[in-house]
Amino acid sequence: MKLGDLFQSAGENVQFVLVCAAVIAVLLLASRFVERKWLKGSIASVRSTKYLTLCAMLGALAMLLHLFDFSVPFLAPGFYKLDFSEVPVMIGAFMLGPVGGIVIELVKILLKLVVKGTSTAFVGDLANFVVGCAFVVPASTVYHLKKSRKTAVVSLVTGTVIMTVFGSAFNAIYLIPAFASLYGMPVDAIIGMGSAINPSITSVWTLAIFAVAPLNLLKGVLISVPTMVLYKRISRVLHNTAQSECTAGKEGQPQM
Q: Which residues pair with 70 in a beta bridge?
């Protein structure tokens, strides 16, 4: 589906679009509350223009990585994809906090829709956004509580666990039925695709447990390792770029 078809598709799926908007609003409001309540003084204070610039840059990089997604056919049906797009999102969240991570994630998805459109009636795009936030928000919150290399490792493990549990439940309860409805594919057909890979998959929930959960665990590793390797170097470059416009808060510089 190309850009010219997006508005027509959105109009035909108003309820789903409203759900997407509600999810984005709740995530932003909850993350903003966390930043003000528990992370005040821990996140570098950056002028709004530089903040938006960093979000746009990292979001664009994430979108490019998102275009090179790939399936893992021995784990899950082919419409489940993995990519490395959460790495720049996670780096941005370590710098700017949970809200910054959500904004970068949103920029990534919106740019992807403009460049490539959707092939999953928007369900895959919502899944990528929400499951990505399920990793990025908890991980960046834990990291900003006490910045250190050890905390960074703990934060990434925490993000992986939460993403795996939430992502599996979200697929079983909402995403798989929504995909079946909007894309016109019977739920039994989707389960059958999973059964062809793993005979233990006989229902929506077993599909989530035996396919989605392992895939999200693998995704957590694919995000965490490059983030640990790259964050300190990249954040220094970005901090130096923003130095003239940035007033660092408590422990504003990277501590990993």
A: 82
Q: Are 64 and 104 in contact (CB under 8 A)?
A: no
Q: Which two tokens stand for residue 173?
A: 């309860």
* pTM of the shown model: 0.86
256 residues of the chain, pLDDT tens digit each = 455 555 555 555 677 778 888 999 999 999 999 999 889 888 877 788 889 999 999 999 999 999 999 999 999 999 899 999 999 999 999 999 999 999 999 999 999 999 998 877 778 899 999 999 999 999 999 999 988 889 999 999 999 999 999 999 999 999 999 888 877 789 999 999 999 999 999 999 999 999 999 999 999 999 999 999 998 777 676 556 544 444 444 444 455 5
CA atoms within 13 A on the CB side of 104: 33
In sequence order, the 6+-apart residues with CB closer than 8 A to the CB of 88 are: 58, 59, 61, 62, 65, 104
- Biggest CA–CA distance in the chain, Å, is 59
Six-digit token string for 183: 């894309």
